[in-house]
Amino acid sequence: MLLYSDTGRAWKQFRQEDNIGTFSGNINSDGIVHHKLSHSIRTRFLRFLPVDWSPGGWMGLRVEVYGCAYKSDVADFNGRSSLLYRFNQKSTSTVKDVISLRFKSQRGDGVLVHGEGQRGDYITLELHKGRLALHINLDDVKMHPSSGHVSVFLGSLLDDQHWHSVLIERFNKQINFTVDRLTKHVRTGGLDDSLEVDYELSFGGIPLPGKPGTFLRKNFHGCMENLYYNGVNIIDLAKRRKPQIYSGNVTFTCSEPQLVSATFLSSSSSFLSLPLDAATETLSVTFQFRTWNREGMLLSAWLRRESERLLLLLVHGQLRLTHHRSALQSQALSDGQWHTVSISVGGFQVSLSVDDEPPSTMQLKDIAQPERSVLIGGCPSVLTNQGCRNPTLAYQGCMRSVIINNQPINFNLVQQGLLGNYSKLQFDICGIRDRCLPNYCEHDGECSQSWNTLFCDCSGTGYTGATCHNSIFEPSCEAHRLTGSASGFFSIDPDGSGPLKSTVVYCNITDDKVWTVVNHNSTEMVRVQGSSLQKPHVMKFNYSTSLEQLRTLVGRSEQCQQEVVYLCRKSRLFNTWDGTPLSWWLDRAGERRTYWGGFLPGVQQCACSLDENCIDMNHFCNCDADHSSWENDTGVLSYKEHLPVTEILVGDTNRSGSEAIYRVGSLHCYGDRFLWNAASFYQESSYLHFPMLQAELSIDISLYFKTTAPSGVFLENLGAKDFIRVELSAPSVVTFTFDVGNGPVVLMVKSHVPLNDKQWHYVRAERNVKEASLQVDQLPLRFLEAPSEGHTHLQLNSQLFIGRHQVSMSFESGSSVTYTFQEPFSVMRNHSRQSSAIFAQSSNSRESIAFSFLTTQTPAMLLTVNTYHQQYMAIILAHNGSLQIWYRLNREKEPDIFTPTSLNLANGELHRVQIHREGRDMYVQVSFEKVKKKKFGKSLTLGKVTGRAGVDEEVLQAGSRGFIGCLSSVQFNHLAPLKAAILNRGSSLVSVLGNLVESNCGELADKSSSRSLSGKKLTNAAQSDSAVIGGLIAAVVLITLCAVAVMTRFLYRHRNERTQQMASVKEKDHQPRPELRYRAELDLHGAMRDSRKEYFI
Questions:
Q1: Is residue 766 within a helix (H) or strand (E), and if so which, with residue range?
Q2: Is 477 helix (H, G, I), strand (E, B) or coil?
Q3: Is the backbone of residue 814 left (phi > 0), alpha (psi -120 to 50) or beta?
């Protein structure tokens, strides 16, 4: 860990992206690891705390730090001081302002910047409960009360006595407000753009006019640095005693408080035991604490002549002082703020004081005399037998300014073992962090937190789940039909877990179709007279849902339409001379459209022209005939990308007798394109690819599948290091695997029956910052919590592949691909450094390797994995072409050699090798021939390997020869080295030597698989001749069948339409419909839709 401090006493932990607080170092004796900080820090002291030594057991630390010069102008404010910057004129009016400063505060409240004008303009920057608030108003409050006011809150826990940067940029009504690395963009309301401030701008407080040293609100108590207002260095002017600056009790060196904090790390075993003077007959304890936890024991003390302890507890966030059956209670204090607590015990009375509240008292039966020690934070395990047990949890949080019997406690003496005793404490630092900043609760969920995790309250949001990610509403009216609903108003959420909220629509559910109806504000007939292009009639349509929701709804539907009724009398739609539009409508994007029916947007026509029945064939619309009688140009708009109609303009009703009547109907849509689409993958190499998943913080994946294959990848998306994958890893096992930077996480659901039974099965996988889950059919949900510390963002950089995306490469002499593991791979270790439950599934008792190869070279190195301890595993082709698996797990013993087959595999044909190890059993499959054998990082290498210590001679010989040929679909557990070599060239994890060319040799795997199912190779001419004869017979039969099919189609083509209709009816009668989503009470095997779409790949 890296800590930094200005004083050398109060330290703060540096955190990288995703709040990662540790840095990995080298894991050998001479390696160098460089870390570039994600953001700069300005500090006087650095402290490096080793958290763990290298996996090899080596201990040592060498550090170099690089920095740069820094200029600083500092002002110290003691809570009764301020700086006033006076303008040259009575008032100043600005349309652009820039204020920048750095500050560190000793308390959570105080005004940093304030300015105001007589007409009501003001700007205030203040700390409020450790957060920065910016209040600004640009309007005259008498003429426009509160219309131009805006308040913005940003940051958290800013009273930590460490430096924080602030930048305020305003241009007219637009404001950019930045605190540290967080920025909010807001816009003020009202009419004015300028900020008018009279006389002066104050820094550090709001002084009362005419009363120096008297302030309207709490003053800032702390230090400011490099304070600039519109380019003016305020502190520099004050230091040089310039006349435009008034300095009240401000000094120009930053005073350092003597407050030193300690962090109680564990909610089960942290405690601090402090001794008392044996002669004392009273007890007084004062301390400050801050925490997010709602439960915990703060203090425990035995009182002589009493049978019970005096306990100070946090219960449901409130302080509770108990003794016997008596109790005192305070307000909620688990808000992350510093609170001061004082307890006084003397005579027959105990008093409790919290912050600035008046003390509460409790009477005792006997005179209280304290024992020889006081416990703070929890009970040590050694005192359990003496009746000291944590009644709830041990305290987890920060504490400082501990005073016992008027004697301040020196934490340095405690840390050195010279005073009292402690467990699971971290000194000189308050390790609190705000897990709700930023807010990971989606869809306006309310975030709360404990010390280790966050919680999301989804009440009233319409969403559910750990982060309010999953919508509780169906995505469409079609989905409501599948639940058995009848027609009516329903809430639907067309984008599911996306950012758009639900909306209410009318679902017209009929036997034929399910229509989704969205109304707007004007569905009645509208009469128009006296309009022209210069003064047109304009009607805007406001729908019952937002345009973004409408866009999603229309895109999800199979077809949408909107009727426009248009009646006219001497009112044209187009100029009959040059075709200029005289009336038009706007689509959902605000674009002008001049067609009035159908789905052909590029044609200026009405429905009668499309139907070829206009009253005057010289015109494309009935109205353009310009008759004095009423004509009709009603049409149905059905081009989805333009719907719905948002505005209509009528411009030719200003002539004598000219008139138009129109009505724009509701939007009607039917069908759900996402409800049931099926794709058939007939080859192992088949796949679909889509744009990269947007899944940084959360993602949910659901699908149905049916197959007869024993394994296969459903979905995969890769990044430089991160990835996500859902697959059928075994006939009865579905696996959800991902890595967000903390190491691979594996969730598996095992079925008691095979899942490759050619029946539909449901899979749903979800991952967010709180947890990950996997559901398969009606089997129990597999669930894992995310670690409290670690990466949270899933960083992907490639396309999303549905199905297996094979990567094949041709290796030439000297070519190789080396993948360096980020840390020693779990299969090579006997323990895990991670204690979080989410890593428990990354089991170190199994590994899987799979690849295909084609070569004629022997000997050859196919794959090798080695560790820093001269352990290795190698897969080679021996001189005779046989496959050999070498592994050495003990440097002192001879390597174990396993030869699964003695056949010559260097025969220029494609072979598939799969290796799976669980515990002490290793299973090898070569061209689908199974063998079983007993038991089986630094890096993984494909191809040529240079000399390495501890590697056996035969393996070295094969490694020096490398590999010439084709490797395809290489996988080592969750790693895909060939994919990494293609997608992440230049990455420090992947090293490519020699010439590598992408190849399609992997596509031969499917062609050879049918031959290799028996595990035997055809070796004699008779067998080959038989194969040729069989192939010729099959070709003749195929040609005959094709001819019969052509003749049959010719004879029955006039009955084709009738045949399709009958087939459709039959399909509806016999095939049940599928569900939109998984429902435990329904039969999953009946989930087939009558109108399903299948794509064959």
A1: strand 761-767
A2: helix
A3: left
Q: What whole-number distance in Å separates Cα of residue 1008 and Cα of residue 911?
A: 8
- In angstroms, the CA 747 to CA 769 distance is 16
Q: Give the pair of three-digit tokens for residue 136.
A: 């600004």
| CA 315 vs CA 32, 294, 344, 392: distances in Å | 49, 6, 21, 8
Stated pTM of the model: 0.73
Can you tell me which residue has the tokens 């050195």?
416
Q: Which amino acid is at 87?
A: F
132 phi, psi to nearest 5 deg: -90, 135
What's the confidence (pLDDT) of residue 892?
Answer: 67
Return d(Cα 280, Cα 394) in angstroms, integer. 27
Terminal-to-terminal C-alpha distance of the chain? 51
Tell me the three state secondary structure of residue 482: helix
Within 10 angstroms of residue 92's Cβ, the number of other Cβ atoms is: 19
Q: Which amino acid does the sequence have at 233?
A: N
Confidence of residue 868 (pLDDT cuts 50, 70, 90): low
d(CA 262, CA 774): 40
| Residue 462 DSSP one-character state | T
Contact 911, 781 (CB under 8 A): no
In residues, how long is the chain? Answer: 1097
175-219 pLDDT, tens digit per residue, is: 999 999 889 999 988 778 888 888 889 999 887 654 444 445 788
For residues 984 and 992, the answer to whether their CB atoms sit within 8 Å is: no
Rounded distance, CA 225 to CA 165, Å? Answer: 9
Tens of pLDDT, residue by residue over 771-787, are 999 999 999 999 999 98
| Long-range residue pairs from 761-764, CB within 8 A, at least 24 positions apart, any chain | 761/704, 761/705, 761/706, 761/1084, 762/702, 762/703, 762/704, 762/1078, 762/1084, 762/1087, 763/701, 763/702, 763/703, 763/704, 763/705, 763/714, 763/726, 763/734, 764/700, 764/701, 764/702, 764/1077, 764/1078
| The pLDDT value given to residue 985 | 53
